[in-house]
Design goal:
By secondary structure, the protein is an alpha/beta fold. It is built from 20 helices and 31 strands. It has an 8-stranded mixed sheet with strand order 12-11-8-6-7-14-15-24, sandwiched between helices. Strands 5-4-17-16-18-19-20 form a 7-stranded mixed sheet, sandwiched between helices. The longest helix is centred in the first third of the chain and has 17 residues. The chain is globular and about 75 Å long. The mean pLDDT is about 95. The structure holds adenosine-5'-monophosphate-propyl ester. Adenosine-5'-monophosphate-propyl ester binds next to helix 11, strand 20, strand 25 and strand 26.
């Protein structure tokens, strides 16, 4: 167990140095010692960032589900693999053992096969956080189908775009979902999405809310009767190391969402390794990540990473505020959660509520706390540390991305001293660089720049589905021979990293990446809108919220502005989903533009931030007078949604 469970800072530096000196040897040892292979690799790493092409463990053969399930059966068959906590606290939690998981994944995999799904086919999964979601991912992986999970909060149009982009042959959904007091008609959203999709042959529907919904003859099938009939044995497909495992879409600053493609062996090795080390996972721990499996956090650290370690992983269907703001802590007490991993936005929301919600529960089972998705501000960090961690549990502030597949910068608990707002040090195998805008690497400490990675790591996305050129342009063109993250970062006097935020037009709202262009495109579909520009502004709970500047056409003049604001947010909800709604919408006669016609977002951002003292030089603008008129009419209050 050479590199697992780094015990102190000195050991971290030793392991880190080894991983940089000889990355191939380092990852080879991890891969050899902790996984089962049908055939081992001929070569650990082959890469060329100029193409870009990256191959890990070439020649190896495996199936990730054998690593996540089958190999645990002999020693952990009765151990709970997935602990499902329903939305309603009165409904009993479900404990799915490794033996049971094996059976259910195999049955599901056989249902996929019976419905014509083969290795390499794409299966779109649009499910709430119920066990079928995790099981369907694993069932796809069992037979080599490529899953493409779409977060079940996305609208029908966003779902349709993703189904079409990867030409999915099947959609797996449910009759609906529970979220707090709400129920959501997921199947209705799928039906709408499929009006414009030609590739989907089958829709499998899980029953969750037991509603009577229309089923389309010849296309839709209830899942349970098929599972009941299916065999409990399904041989795992032999997968090559670089065979695709899944596609997961993430927003870009422009254009359509990017289908990040992750492959099998490297992704497995890296997510398992980081899970065990960063959470200091021990055999009888109960681990809980509150993310949705619709995001990369859920893929890597609810499903694959934990199960590859034979862990018990909690899946929570509900929301932190239902039935009250103590729900998270009630669940921690109930299941004796040892590692708790959540997003800063959830922490900020809970910190606003009465402390009694936390103090009422016994949180002594907790050993490690984690955060992910956006920078954690100092106040939220301290609240988490003081009230949840009782100042005794390390907080791992983990920086990573959909594209990186696994965590990249994080403290190792009990080894790396933590520092509020700092993700601290790169994990073993992660070679970072800070770059200046001219393309030079910035050496030394107490510097800031654009965050890049200069050497491959096993779980990096290999391409954008169907558009390798875009992959190259987005990640490998800004700086030669380096992967560019799109984030800015600073390195302090001891080499700790602090992520300062996106340097492109992606805005992170409540931990969700939102590109400005698709939102602007949606707004511009409103018949009364001529043009729009979106920027972020600081928000107490969401981290950032969206501020929209909208120019109306003549047809919009004289219309009730509040109604227009509602309609604009309705259009955004339909095109993308409620997460992309604007908090402020200011109608304006013009937008500040350069002489070449580019919107000067920098100025709009400053106005939205209320930083009016240092707008910089506006005299070179095409229309400098517009700036003052925007300032005069800027909005101070948020929209009530
Ligand atoms: O800006 C960084 C921010 O989230 C972006 C990645 O978003 P996504 O692909 O949705 O993945 C989120 C979950 C892994 C990053 O480019 N981000 C993520 N974690 C942190 C963070 N910013 C600061 N600190 C973090 N710990």
């Amino acid at each position: 167990m050479s590199n697992y469970h780094i015990k102190n800072l000195e050991e971290y530096y030793q392991v880190y140095r080894k991983s940089v000196r000889n990355p191939e040897l380092f990852w080879e040892e991890v891969a050899e010692e902790h996984f089962v292979w049908k055939k081992t690799w001929d070569k650990v790493l082959n890469y060329d960032f100029s193409k870009p092409e990256v191959k890990w463990f070439e020649g190896a053969e495996l199936n990730i589900t054998e690593n996540c399930i089958d190999r645990h059966l002999a020693t952990r068959g009765d151990k709970t693999a997935i602990l499902f906590e329903p939305n309603n606290p009165d409904e009993e939690a479900e404990k799915i053992s490794y033996t049971e998981l094996h059976k259910r994944v195999n049955q599901f995999a056989n249902v996929l096969k019976d419905n014509g799904i083969k290795k390499g086919d794409r299966v779109c999964i649009y499910l709430p956080m119920i066990p079928e979601l995790a099981i369907s991912l694993l069932a796809c992986a069992r037979i080599g189908a490529i899953h493409s999970v779409v977060f079940a909060g996305f609208s029908s149009s966003a779902l349709g775009t993703r189904i079409n982009d990867c030409e999915a042959k099947m959609v797996i959904t449910s009759d609906g979902s529970f979220r707090g007091v709400k129920t959501i008609d997921l199947k209705g959203i799928v039906d709408e999405a499929l009006e414009d999709c030609t590739t989907v042959e089958t829709v499998l529907v899980a029953k969750r809310i037991h509603s009577d919904i229309p089923m389309k003859e010849g296309r839709d099938q209830w899942l349970q009767p098929l599972l009941d009939k299916a065999s409990e044995e399904c041989e795992a497909e032999v997968m090559k190391a670089e065979d695709p495992l899944f596609i997961l879409y993430t927003s870009g600053s422009t254009g359509s969402p990017k289908g990040m493609l992750h492959t099998t062996a490297g992704y497995m090795v890296y997510t398992a390794y980081t899970f065990k080390n960063v959470f200091n996972y021990r055999e009888n721990d109960v681990y809980w990540c509150t993310a949705d499996i619709g995001w990369i956090t859920g893929h890597s650290y609810i499903v694959y990473g934990p199960l590859a370690n034979g862990a018990t992983t909690v899946m929570f269907e509900g929301v932190p505020s239902y039935p009250d703001f103590g729900r998270f802590w009630q669940i921690v007490e109930k299941h004796k959660v040892s590692q708790f991993y959540t997003a800063p936005t959830a922490i900020r929301a809970l910190a606003k509520e009465n402390l009694e919600y936390v103090d009422k529960y016994d949180l002594s089972s907790i050993k490690v706390l984690g955060t992910v998705g956006e920078p954690i501000n100092e106040e939220a960090w301290h609240w988490y540390n003081d009230n949840v961690g009782k100042k005794k549990n390390p907080i791992v502030d983990t920086w990573w991305q959909t594209e990186t597949g696994g965590m990249m910068i994080s403290p190792i608990p009990y080894a790396t001293p933590t520092k509020p707002t700092y993700a601290t040090l790169p994990l073993p195998g992660v070679q970072l660089a800070l770059m200046d805008e001219q393309g030079n690497e910035i050496h030394g400490n107490q510097v800031d720049g654009r965050l890049c990675v200069k050497f491959p790591w096993p779980s990096m996305a290999r391409t954008i589905w169907g558009n390798h050129q875009r992959y190259k342009d987005t990640y490998f063109s800004a700086f030669s021979d380096k992967y560019f993250t799109g984030d800015g970062a600073l390195r302090d006097e001891v080499g700790y990293y602090r992520i300062t935020g996106r340097v492109d037009d992606v805005i992170i709202v409540s931990g969700h990446n939102l590109g400005t262009a698709p939102i602007e495109d949606a707004i511009n579909e409103h018949p009364a809108v001529a043009e729009s520009a979106i920027v972020g502004f600081p928000h107490d709970i969401k981290g950032n919220a969206l501020y929209g500047y909208v120019i109306l056409k003549e047809t919009g003049e004289g219309r009730d502005h509040n109604n227009l604001r509602k309609e604009i947010n309705q259009i955004i909800t339909e095109h993308i989903g409620p997460i992309a709604k604007l908090d402020k919408i200011q109608f304006t006669e013009g937008l500040p533009k350069t002489r070449s016609g580019k919107i000067m977002r920098r100025i709009l951002r400053k106005i939205a931030h209320n930083e009016l003292d240092n707008l910089g030089d506006v005299s070179t603008l095409l229309n400098p007078e517009v700036v003052q008129s925007i300032i005069d009419k800027r909005l101070s209050s948020e929209l009530v949604s």
